[in-house]
Amino acid sequence: MAARNRRELTGLKKIGIIKLIMPFVPLTLPELPRMALAIRKEVIRMLGRSGSGHPGGSLSEADLLTCLFFHLMRHDPANPSWEERDRFVLSKGHGCPGVYAAMALAGYFPKEELLTLRRLGSRLQGHPDTRFLPMLEACTGSLGQGLSISCGIALAAKMDRKDHRVYCLMSDGETQEGQTWEAAAFAGFHGLDRLIALVDYNKFQLDGKVADIMDLEPLAKKWESFRWHAQEIDGHDILKIVQAVRQAQAAPGKPHVILAHTVKGKGVSFMEHNNYFHGVTPTAEETEAALKELDGDPSLSKALVAAGKIKMGGK
Ligand SMILES: Cc1ncc(C[n+]2csc(CCOP(=O)(O)OP(=O)(O)O)c2C)c(N)n1
Ligand SMILES: [Mg+2]
Q1: pLDDT tens readout for residues 189-203
Q2: Is residue 69 part of a domain?
Q3: Which residues have any ligand 1 atom within 6 Å of their CB?
Q4: Where are the strands (E) in 151-211, listed by range?
């Protein structure tokens, strides 16, 4: 069923033979942009309905999530606790709408459930909670903790001589947390080379620009000095993301970080670089405009901007 959904979405026919040898059939590179778009649309629908949550960082991470969940990670939505699965930890827990969308589209749970985001009794809480959704690897939301959790998982795998990888999605403001650097030192010292951290470097945190509040640069050099292999890429370039992760997968001895330069609110013009939408959800009108724009028609978005109806935030 899940595979059928994905194929329908991307216009590809069922590939039964591949399904026999791989539990989860990855999408091909040309199919990925359409999936990223589908994730962004679900994010807008969910947040438009929920009335609370974080659109900006959920949109900036969408291409990274697409590449991980639909092309790079070894996992099986039909068997979420498969022992050999790669582990994914969302350190930037408030970005969970993006992850919930990716998981639903991959077949972990029905797409309709996405619209229950943040409702009382829903499995889809405002931050990832393994009590309700056991296919998540960790409860996150208190920023700065995910890399430490990922280190523990990666060290355990190494001790058990398992070959699965741990992918940790972090955010840039989060990187200011001291705990991040304790974890970085730990992973570097232990040479946790199956740990791949991705930083959604969208330049904004809650209150404004990261560079104004506490600049992170030179970020790649900092990671390298902690004995990490660091790469910097355009975090919206699907090919570059895939190549960077493949390079990380192939290089032994050190943990890997991919600094993915992104745009907060990516895909919806009035949300891009507009930190008002860090933690404010779109109104009904904005939701309609955003969905139209993602479908290729920016006219309503432009009209809202022209009418001065879009609030601005950040700097
Ligand atoms: C330890 C901690 N302090 C504060 C918060 C509240 N908070 C939620 S999101 C956020 C800003 C996050 O900015 P960034 O890390 O850059 O994430 P993104 O831009 O991807 O949304 C803050 C301060 C938190 N979740 N955890
Ligand atoms: Mg940020």
Answers
A1: 999 999 999 999 999
A2: yes
A3: 54, 56-57, 92, 94-95, 141-144, 171-174, 200, 202, 204-206, 264, 278
A4: 166-171, 195-201
